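Box 3.1 — From sequence to structure: Cytochrome C554
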Amino acid sequence: MKSMSVIVVAGLLSFSALAAGDAAVGKNKSVSCVACHGAAGKVSIPMYPNLAGQNAMYLEQALLSYKKGERSGGQAEVMRAYVLALSDTDIADLAAYYASLQP
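Predicted structure (token representation):
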């Protein structure tokens, strides 16, 4: 049972590292997101998701999945085109920014 606890703790630590972005820097990087996801992460076109207040770890994993081509359907190819040039730090910063906003 001890080894299971170590695995769980290690997993939590790796998730914490993922969500370590800088929200202020992410705000500056969010300019290209506004067209679809709206100012302050709130959409005006219902086919796109609101990002404001979304969980940072979820956003980071979603963006990384788009970048790796692991997501398909819907707007996946459009999203992939946007995130291909983003570094892991850029992605963490964007996730932190949108997570910091009020839904």
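Summary of the box: Confidence is low (pLDDT under 50) at residues 4-17.
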